[in-house]
Each structure stands twice: as structure tokens, then as C-alpha cells.
Amino acid sequence: MECPTFCVWGANTAVGKTLVSKGLAEAAARRSLPCFYLKPVQTGFPDDSDADFVARGRTATTMGAHAAVAAGIERGGTSSPIADGSGGDGTWSHTEFAWARAVGPHLAAREEGRGVADSEVLRAVTAQLSEFSDHVGSALRLSFTSLTGDERPSGVALVETAGGVCSPAPSGALQCDVLRPLRLPAILVGDPKLGGISTTIASLETLAARGYDVVAIVMSGSACGNVDAVEQYASEFNQVGGGEDARGIPTFALPPVPERRIVGDVVGHGREIYEWLDDGRDVFDALLTHATSWHRERVRKMRTAPDEALRTLWWPFTQHDATPRENVTVIDSRCGEDFGVYSPDSNAIELRFDGAASWWTQGASKAEQTRLVRAASAAAGRYGHVMFPENVHAPALDAASELLKGAGRDWATRVFYSDNGSTAMEVAVKMAIRTYFVRKGFIPSPEKASDAADFLPQVRVLALDGSYHGDTLGTMDMQAPSVFTGPLQTPWYKPRGIFLRPPTLQMREGRWVVIQPERGPLPGGGGLAAGWATREEAFDHETRDETPLAKAYRAVVDAALDEAEADAKENGAPPVAALVMECVLHGAGGMDLIDPTFQRATIQACRARGLPVVLDEVFAGIWRLGAEGAWELLGEKPDVSCYAKLFTGGLTPLAATATTEEVFDAFRGPTKQNALLHGHSYTAYPIGCAVAAEAQRMYRDPLINDNLVEMGGGDARAALRELWDEHAARAISALPCVKGVTVIGCVLAIELEDSVGGGGGGGGGYSSTAARDVVLRLRARSIQARPLGNVLYLMCAPTTDPARCYDLIREVWTELSIVAAGDDDDW
Amino acid sequence: MECPTFCVWGANTAVGKTLVSKGLAEAAARRSLPCFYLKPVQTGFPDDSDADFVARGRTATTMGAHAAVAAGIERGGTSSPIADGSGGDGTWSHTEFAWARAVGPHLAAREEGRGVADSEVLRAVTAQLSEFSDHVGSALRLSFTSLTGDERPSGVALVETAGGVCSPAPSGALQCDVLRPLRLPAILVGDPKLGGISTTIASLETLAARGYDVVAIVMSGSACGNVDAVEQYASEFNQVGGGEDARGIPTFALPPVPERRIVGDVVGHGREIYEWLDDGRDVFDALLTHATSWHRERVRKMRTAPDEALRTLWWPFTQHDATPRENVTVIDSRCGEDFGVYSPDSNAIELRFDGAASWWTQGASKAEQTRLVRAASAAAGRYGHVMFPENVHAPALDAASELLKGAGRDWATRVFYSDNGSTAMEVAVKMAIRTYFVRKGFIPSPEKASDAADFLPQVRVLALDGSYHGDTLGTMDMQAPSVFTGPLQTPWYKPRGIFLRPPTLQMREGRWVVIQPERGPLPGGGGLAAGWATREEAFDHETRDETPLAKAYRAVVDAALDEAEADAKENGAPPVAALVMECVLHGAGGMDLIDPTFQRATIQACRARGLPVVLDEVFAGIWRLGAEGAWELLGEKPDVSCYAKLFTGGLTPLAATATTEEVFDAFRGPTKQNALLHGHSYTAYPIGCAVAAEAQRMYRDPLINDNLVEMGGGDARAALRELWDEHAARAISALPCVKGVTVIGCVLAIELEDSVGGGGGGGGGYSSTAARDVVLRLRARSIQARPLGNVLYLMCAPTTDPARCYDLIREVWTELSIVAAGDDDDW
């Protein structure tokens, strides 16, 4: 906004929020600064009208008077402050939603039968603030850049809440939750009464834990020494991102407020309140000065953040030379699926859909995010970290238990924790190879493991071309050679796999078809082309397993394994010890849905030969594709599988490698040498585990997650409803600029024709810049996507409202249609 | 404790905490259950005596009476409840610290000049509760096992706080912080007044964020609908470790409390309060039933946790077959350096020093831990996670800025984030090798990087034997062959280094000596033996660099590099591209202090040949060894260095790879292929970054960290004072069972003679069980250590009070002396 805006919160009811607002408005008037006071929710109206009191000049005789400042104000009205007009001293004020009953807003709304949704409150606050800042911005001809220098702001706006920080909004939700997306800087009015140290500090912590910046605490004096105690505590209170120079929160002490008395026919203050305001004049002036300079510093930090980032940070997967300053996005906060992004153009925070789900981690919509945050904060307070070996703590058990009855149900019995998908996969392959050694008799018994160690062969894995398992060397070695694995990137890379080129499944022109890769296992795929109207048919294993294509797949895999066996026998090549696959969908490889019939055939062929099956569900697992375990979609159980990303719902890194008891047993034995000697310092750290346990429950609980539906066919497992509208996806797939669409679970991926993007990228694949241009168009529509080569994708959470997805997919369709119609000069 | 104990907290003052305690005491009496009521801190005494009211029978006529229950009660007295005696109905009560003034305890303490330290309050509460539970346990002959079945508990104890949850203790600290180490389950008395929804919910959140379990909320009714709103919110409130069946917190609604009136000469309740207690009888009975069954469930969970752990978890670096049930430690919580450990013997939570600093991560004492928790919780609430490439958020900048002005000062300009030390080192070696390629002209210019890619040679690193850089394959490849790298553990291991055997430095019999390794660079080390009285002399580079030993070191390293160059030239062996070393101290390798003169010589030799220097400061960095950057101790700056563990102070995983601008520049160029294509989903996640920023400030701020001293010699950098008493270390090093001692910064490591431990382990090294037995002795002294082979070590935090260290090192000395005296049958 073009003028500093603060939200005035109370540590309790009747602590003098409106008096503080009035004091600030008068301080603004003394500086000839236009001030806008907004009361989004008011009860007891119009007998009580805080907006009235704040905007009224001192000519009125008592505070008991009730005349609305301007004709525009009405109960529940939506008139604008400008329409309402200014009161005395250049102060505008406005009441947005009002009820006559002098009770809490949630009760008033219920009793009077006029509810207001949280989103309506948010929308109204945003609209009113925008209108005012536009108004003062243009009227005073001050550009917002004045905020970054020494010049005066164009105005100041105050949003005053009702009651205390956790008092209910009209919907019944807490006000501090309802207003969170705006993250307006907070001025907390402390509680001067006995007990007020506690209520003030608890309120401060409640605001801080929701990510609000608390700019200042202001308290009127009292006999019980509250100010001193609060000031002491607040002066050492650390906030996020404050840096060294911005520690502590200042406390402003006001004179004691006069007792309320009967004035006219109501209880209130008489003219003595103006004396009190005069007494507090210096304090209010100092508070306003502090708040506006705090705001200036906030803006300065956001404006300079890109420069500092370009100077000190080193981003992953980013060519800094190809990242001009204007490409750097300053993220102020997150609320559910949306980023709060600082826009230098509007000098405001704008909400933008995080289309990449922050590298595929985000699992919580706004409402549920609170549950995860709470879990993190409670685990931090209770434990910090706890070293794991031979120790047990509740969150570690809890997260494991949820995993074993969730994605691990019916197959896994053990959970090994590590820090990310890459480490989870390194652990997984160690586990699988040891299991192979035991199964095949290389290690005849646990007691003989050490003796056998010197005679263990070098081994390989069977893997799929285009799959990705992480960036550490062990996982890179499981990838087929690519631009990521060359000596420029991974000097010690050595391919440890036999890599099959898998067939993919994609919606093309409204129909799901199997695409055989060039130089793939089925050259040409002649006579075995397959296609269906729905995705369900493509995943109908009972029918498809009987097709010639399925048999051809099995033959291809068997031939590859036969060849490897012969190579091992005849040439001493490392034998294949395990199957390693990304389950169902290759994520980083380009959102390629692998033909599930091919993956089934591969698993079955490997299992028939006694090879352990390792699935990488880091991307696909934990509801990503609509099922809790991605393996469920294949109808085949792994021996080892890895989970991360959605596992913690989008808060903290944590990965799990789940296994069968047979795999665990392969590491038992008399000595430590038999054990799995792998671990990281923060293995199973309580914060991560507590969040993972909560996230898994959140996805699975039908009382929390509205997207759950029962799966048919007598299976008691739940599944996600379709999140991305299939009709819209079909329409997109029919656009001439679109090669194909992949839509499953939380994933909507659109492969563009290589010619899209003006041929600048060309050739598709990683180096393509095709999708990049569409991404820029979407950004203007408040959607922040990140392309994967020529693949444009959007990722929602398992808890995202499908209505939201519908709006998003329509935006995508619209932008792509413009491209398809060729009427866009940019192309 | 042998009887369920709860802490009664108030959402505000005057919400009826004592009435609730009384109601619970009466409910206990109705079940003939002994009840102990403890008021640790009372003001306005003896006019006000909550203990008096709770224990008094109903025969007294008014609540205004002030007779102390028993003669033992006196102001600030320390008499026991048993001495005080029981009031009516089998209820004991006791007031521990009391002041006459009816103001907040911090004010009363100040005004009356009788302060009480937090530790005194804690000690008193613990002592009183223990005495009571012993008393009822033995008197009633009920074993604590009755708690796990359907039988009744032996008694119930209530600890009632003063004021609200955040009201100050006598010391001025918040009561909820002071009592945190005990983590007594909380009963929160809600606030029925207008505004009480907010104060109750904020208080609930404040308790939960400190890791308290909130068992129940209890509120008296009021006209403002508080109970309904609180009940609604609390019913969806998730706590840590609760599991699926234990979601939500129940709210118990009591009848409205009668108004206070003037009774006798004070304001209070008359006999009508007993009618109110009678009206609430069913509620109190239900609350007591709920609380005791909640307690039973808590105990059951802790008792079964080892079984569940052994059934479902897979610990890192642990042979499960060698982990009997009794070895499994149930960690209830952490407070500063101490674990709260569930002891099945006493059925209580006992504090135990976390001697391994939870795998070398812990940086905060109790007081500072709050700062880190606050940072974590605020970042969680504000951001959750934010995808990093091309994005910037305040915590990422903040943590980088702190690192660059701290451990990276004067050399580093860039920070690359990853998840743990292992990934940080994988990134570091990729960076160093690319830098080598650029320096040596293999990549002539950024534009030609892609063309050059096909002609880049395979390379090796120069590394030290016995060093450890993590468990992922890329870091394993930098380790010399060992039990960790065999095909049993790391099937794809391929040593990528030329490994030098380094000389070590250790205190032996009170003197610091250099130990040349067998088959090391200086066979025999004849004529070059070195030793000093103090560690400072061993680190006096100016003097030592001129010694023949230093010159011999340099010659050894040069010879190794010459040989490698010749091997590359003549045999096409991979050339050496970088130096990779753990800085100063080999941690996992056995707490071996490497002779700093040798590391200096190695760095200088490599730098002279244009080889980038990679330091692994994951263990040694961030104040571990007394300096913020461990490289400071060597007086040599790296090109790349890695930080983790203490970087986040012991809360969450996060690692940083810091580099010079030259290294960063090696990845610049026109295309993405030049960039560093490495990243993890949660790279630079805000929670981790916010904690890292706060932790670094915490260590470095002399107002927070009392252990900082100025370094001499005109260096403006600070250092840690000696934490482990050197005299005591010297005494330990002189014990016959001790081979040598390493004491530096936070580290106290004691290498035992191989014969110690009954020769069971034998041979020292990893497989030794020598230290294990001493560890068991220390556990009985509330010290939880974890041995590294035959090395026993204790690790404190950079903020640990040296007085605490002194007590600990004395315990170690005592236990080892017993061993040395040979008068212990266990040996």
C-alpha cells in the first residue's frame, strides 16, 4: 500500500484499542498526515461506533454521542471511506460490518442471522485500504518512493480489530487467523489490569507465532507494574528477519486511562478523555514516528532484498547470470497455497498462487496450515532436538505409526528417517543391495556377514531412463547419463544402472494414449498402440495385464534382465541387484506419467527373479497422485519405498525410508558391522516428525480434508476426488500449442509443442524455454509457476479446494487459448 | 512420580484457579484419594492463603479466615507437606514461598527484598512432590504399576501457579518458563469474563508452544458464551504425540462463580462457595477422572514406547540385535543441555545431561533455547516453506548475513544452503572441482564450459585418513577405506582421494604432545617429537611454523602431491583437484585433534599449487572449538567451507556451504548447464534459516552468551572462555586407565587405554566397547554419554555455564578414578 498500515490488536477487551487509534489519528493530524481508520467488525452499533469516535473532532461534547461520521456508514454496508468522507483533522473512518447487539461478533452474527464469511472480511479490508491509499496517493501527489527515503508517507491507515487477539470473527474463527493472509504489522495494546502482564505477553506470543510482525506494544499505566514487566520481556523478544539491529519490541507507556463513568445515558468517558489524549500526546507522536519509520525500514528491506540476494545467496538450479534483478521474487509470507509476494510496482504485498507448490512440498490449505505450525511449534518447545539412536520420543513413534498405517499399510513394518529424498534413496539402495546379498546367499547368515564382506560383488540396479532420485552422488549414480550427470556437474558420476526407456501415458487431444519412446523397448510400438477415453481405463490393470502390449513389456524386461545375467556370467559385469523406480510419475524428468502396465510388468519380472523392489515415492507418494501410497496405483507392493516432500506437508525437511521386515532383518546380526551405518545429526528430529505425523493425519481425516472419497471395489482405502477438472484438461489438450496433458491427483502438467515460445528454446527437453513465456503471462494473473523445460505445470495440495483448482485451470486455458489463437504479439 | 501430578494454570488472574484446585481436592476426597496441593509462590500471605483454603474442611465458616493449615507453614519456609499435615478429607497442602504484599511475586520479592531464584522454585517443587509421592506410595502400599492398569492411583498432586500463564515468577522470569523443565501436565482454568475467549486461547497456545501437554480446560460459565467458543476451538486443537485417538482438548464447564462480596473485613466468598462446589461436583468428578486416565495413558505410552520403537523404528548406526529393551531411553523432553528422561524404575521424568549434545548439535542452554524456539515458531507461522530458486525471503538473507559476518568473515561472500553436513560437503566438492577446472584452464571461459565438458578429466582430492564427511556416497568417496566403506556398507564406494595419515595432538599425562601415526608421513617421527604444557603453545603458529617438524610436514605433503602429479602425467591417474579436510578435529573418527601445524602445512602446499581448499567445519565450526570459524584456529582461510550442526543451535537440520566469489564465478555463464544443478526440496526453508540466524546471533551476543571473551593480539574477534577446566582435564590425563585427553572448546574427549573394559573390546578403534562401561557408570550420575569406540566424550554447548562443566568433569574424574584404583568389581 502506498501508506503505512497497521493493525491495532488488544491483549484483552476494554484495554483501550480505540483510544490508541484515536491518539494515533490525532498524531497524524498534527503532522497533517491523512489518516484512515477502518473498523471491519463492530458490534453494539450504532450505539457503539469506534469509527465515529476516532474520526470525530473535539467539538462534540461527549463520547456518548452516536452520530455516524458520514451518511455512507450503515450496518453491514460496503460504502467506501472516501464516500463516508473525512471527519475532523483529515481523518477518514469507516465501519464495514456492524451488528446492533453488544456481544461478540460471532454471537451477534448468529443471533441477528447475518453471518459474514472470513473471505468477505478479508476482501473488504483489502478493498478499503486500497481505495484509501489510491486516494491519498493521488490527492497528495506523493509517490510511494517517499517511503524509502526521508520524506513523509502519503498517509497512515489503521485497522482495528474487535476484542482480544484470539476473539472470534463473525464466522467464529479467530480474528488473528482470519486476518493472517494480509499480515499487517501489529500494534498491540497491552492490558493494564491486574493479570495484564500475562494476557499481554500471551497475546504477543500468539501474534508472533502466526508470523505477524509486532511493531510496538502500547499500554496505559496502572498500579500493578504491568508496563515495566512487559517492557522488560518485549525488549528481548526476537522476531523473524529482524536482523541484529532490530531486536526487541519497544513498549510505549501512556498515562492511566480515566475511569469510565455514566455520561448521558451510557457508560463511557466524558471530555476528560481529551485531556488524557493531550497528556499522551508525546507518546502518540513517538509511537507514530516509530511505526512509520519501522514501515519505511520494512519497505527498504523488501526493496533491497533482491540486491542482497544477488550479492550473497547462491540459488540451487539457477544460473545467476541469467537471473536479472527483476526476476527475483521477494516472498513476504505464505498462507496456504498462496505466497504473499512483495510487488515493487504497487509497493504492496500481493497474494500469488504458488504453482510449483514450493518444489512439490505443500500439503496444506490455509485452514489446515495452522495444525502443522502448531505441531512444529509445540515440538520445538518440548524437545528441540533429540539424538536418535537407541532413544525414542513420541513424535518419532507417531510419524512412523502414521506412515505404517498409511502409505506403508499392508507391506511396510519399519521406518528409517533421514533429511531429504536424496538421502532416503541412498539409504534405500543400501538396504536393497544388502537384501539382495542375503537373498542370493552372498551373505549366508548374519554371523558370517563380516567374513563375506570381502567377497561381495559390485552390483547394478535396473532403473528407468529419465528418472530422478536426488542430487547426492549415490542417487545420481542411479540415473541414466544426462546433462545433470556430466563431469561438469557431477565429476564422480558413474552410472550404476541398466536403464530401460519407459513408455509414457498422456492425454492428447482429449484421449489418454501410450507413447512409446524413440529407441525404447518396443521400437515403433507397431500394432500395440493403446488409448482410452479416461485415465481410469489406463490404470485398469485387470484388463490391461491381458493385452499383447503388457506381454510385450514383460518380454522386454525379461530380455534386459537375461542379457544382464549373461553379461555378469560371461564378462563379470556387475549383476543386477535391485529394481529402482520413481513410482508412476517421473517428476523432475518432466512430469512424465509412465505407463503403469509397464511398471507393473517390470516389478513382476524383477520379483520373479528375487530382486528387491525399491520405489521412489518422494514425489508421487503421500496423496500426490490421489492415493496415499503411489504404489497403490500400480497394485504392486515394494520392498523399500521412500517418502519426503508432502510427508511434512510443506514446513520442514524430513524423509522416511519404509521397508519390510525382511529388509530390516538383513541388517541384524551379532556385530555393529552388520548394522546400517548411516545417519545424519538431525535424524528423526522431533519438529520434523511431529509435523509429519500431523500432516499425514490431516490428509487422511475426512473431518479435515474435504477432498477424500471412498475408493470403490471393496477397498477400504480413501482416495482424493479429482482436483483438476478433467473436462478443462481435455479442452487444453486439444489446443494446437499443446502436445499433451498429464492430469492426476495434485498434478496438472501441460507439455507444449516445441514451436511455442517463438522457437527460442527449440528442441524441447531441459534447455527449452518454451513454457517460460506462458509462465510470465500467468504471473500477471497471480499464478507463480515454474516451468520444467517445455512443460508447464501447476501443483495443488491434497487439501486444496477443487473450486480453486477450477479457477486456476480456467486461467491456464485462457492464456493458452490466446496463444493458440495466434493473436498475441508476444509470440 | 507415583501419583498423577498436574499444574493448575490460569488464563488470567482471578479466574478461579484455587476454586478448581479445591473442587479437584474434594473430588479426590470423595474417591478417598490422598491429595496434595502445593502453592509454590503466594503473595498477600497469610491474609491470602490458597493452600489454607484448599486443605481446610467445610467446618470453617467463611473463606475469609486466615489460619494456616499447619504450624509448618511459614513465609518462605521449606517445611514439607507431611510436616504441615493434612487438612480435612485427606488433603495435604503447602505454601513454599510467600510474601505479605498482595502484588505480583516479582514486585513483592523486590519490595520485600527477598528474592527467590528460578532454580530454587524448581528444586522446592520437585522436593515437595517427591516427598508426597513417597509418602502416599508407601503409606498406601500401592505400587506405581497400578497406574498402568485399571487400579486407582496412590494419590493426586496439584501445583497451582500464581496469576496467568505468563505472570512473572519472583525472579521476574515468566512462570511458564520457570516450570518448563518439569513439564507437568497442565489444567488450564479459562477466563469467563468478557474478552476471556481471547485470553484463554492465547494462554492455551502459550502453554502448548512451550511443550506443555494441556490435559483439560475448565471454565466457569458466564453470559458471554466463552465456554462454547473455547470448547469449539479446543476440540480441534492438536498436541504433539497425541496420536489419532487423542485429538482435541476437552473443556469442562462449571456453574457461574458467585460474585465476590465483603465477608468479614475482606472481599471474598462466603459459604455460598460451598454450594457452588456442590453444584460443580459432577464436573470436578469428571475432570478428575479424565485427568487421572489421561495420566494413566501417558504412563502407558512411555512404558510401551521402547517396545513400539523396537518394533517399528530403524535407528541409524545401531545394531538392533545388540539393543536390548532396557537400553532404549524414552526421552520425554529437552530443556537446555538436559534431556527429560522417563525412568521406568522411579516412574518419573528425570533430568539427564545430554553428553553427546544430541550428535553434536546442541548450542543453547535453557534460557536461550526460548529464543530459538520462538524463531522456529514465528517462521513456521509466517512462511511454512518457500521454494528458493530466484526467490528471496528474510530468514534466508538473515542467516546468510550472520554467517558471512561470522564464520565466513574476511573470506566468504556466498552461501549455498542444503539439508545436512553430508549434502553440504557433496556440494562443496562439486564447487571445488569446478573451480579447479577453471583455474587450470580445463574450462577456458564460461562460454566454453559446455564444449569443454566432454574433455574434463576424472579427478581426485587430497584428504586425511580418519576423516569423515557424511554418509552419502559422494562424501564416503572422500573417506579412506574403513569399516564404513566396505561393500557390506557402501556397495558403490570408490575411494577418490589420496589419503595422508595425519599426526594428532593430545594431552598425555598433563602435557600436550604430537603423536605421529604408525605408517604415517614421518615414520618414527624420530628427532621431531614435540610437546608443550599448554594447548595455546601447540597452536602458536608463528613459533611452530619455524620448527623442523613443520618443515618435515611440508616436505611430506609436497612429496605426496609430486607423486600424484607424476602418476597423473605418467599413468593417466586422476590428478588431485582439491584439498578436503575436517578442520582441526576429526569428530566421528574418534575426536582426534589433528596437529594444526600439519593442517597449515597441507593447506599452504595445496594453495601453492593452485588447489582449492575445502574445509569441513560441520563438526568443528560455529564456536565448537572456541572460535566461530574453526579455520581461525589454523590461521588459514578456505575457498569453500561447510557448516551445519551448531549452525541451527540444536533444533532443525540446515547446512550451509560458504564460498569465495571466485568459486561462485566458476558457475556463472550464459547457460543453465554452467550453473550448480544441485538442490533439495526444502533448501533454505524459512524455519531452518530463521533458527540459524538466531542461533548465530545468540552465540555471538555478549549480552546473551556469558562465555564470550575478547581474543588477544589485536584481533577483534571474540572467543569462548575455557569451558572444561584444564586442571581437571590434566588430572584425568594422568589416570592410569587413560591414554590421553583432548580438551578444546565444547569438547572433552578421553581416550581410554585399550585394556579398560575388561579387554572385552580390545584393540581400540570402532569396535571397542571400552568406553561403554564407563558410560553406564555415568548414566547413574545423570549423565547420558555415548562412546566413540574407546573414546569417552562429553560435549557442552557454547553457551553452557562453565560451572556446570566443572561439575560434570569432576563426575567423570571420580568415575574414572574408581576404575583407575582398581577397586571396582565391575572391571
UniProtKB/TrEMBL annotation, chains A, B:
<dbReference type="GO" id="GO:0004015">
    <property type="term" value="F:adenosylmethionine-8-amino-7-oxononanoate transaminase activity"/>
</dbReference>
<dbReference type="InterPro" id="IPR027417">
    <property type="entry name" value="P-loop_NTPase"/>
</dbReference>
<dbReference type="InterPro" id="IPR015422">
    <property type="entry name" value="PyrdxlP-dep_Trfase_small"/>
</dbReference>
<protein>
    <submittedName>
        <fullName>Predicted protein</fullName>
    </submittedName>
</protein>
<dbReference type="InterPro" id="IPR015421">
    <property type="entry name" value="PyrdxlP-dep_Trfase_major"/>
</dbReference>
<dbReference type="InterPro" id="IPR049704">
    <property type="entry name" value="Aminotrans_3_PPA_site"/>
</dbReference>
<keyword id="KW-0808">Transferase</keyword>
<dbReference type="GO" id="GO:0030170">
    <property type="term" value="F:pyridoxal phosphate binding"/>
</dbReference>
<dbReference type="GO" id="GO:0005739">
    <property type="term" value="C:mitochondrion"/>
</dbReference>
<dbReference type="Pfam" id="PF13500">
    <property type="entry name" value="AAA_26"/>
</dbReference>
<dbReference type="GO" id="GO:0009102">
    <property type="term" value="P:biotin biosynthetic process"/>
</dbReference>
<keyword id="KW-0663">Pyridoxal phosphate</keyword>
<dbReference type="InterPro" id="IPR004472">
    <property type="entry name" value="DTB_synth_BioD"/>
</dbReference>
<dbReference type="GO" id="GO:0004141">
    <property type="term" value="F:dethiobiotin synthase activity"/>
</dbReference>
<dbReference type="InterPro" id="IPR015424">
    <property type="entry name" value="PyrdxlP-dep_Trfase"/>
</dbReference>
<keyword id="KW-0032">Aminotransferase</keyword>
<dbReference type="GO" id="GO:0005524">
    <property type="term" value="F:ATP binding"/>
</dbReference>
<dbReference type="Pfam" id="PF00202">
    <property type="entry name" value="Aminotran_3"/>
</dbReference>
<dbReference type="InterPro" id="IPR005814">
    <property type="entry name" value="Aminotrans_3"/>
</dbReference>
<dbReference type="GO" id="GO:0000287">
    <property type="term" value="F:magnesium ion binding"/>
</dbReference>
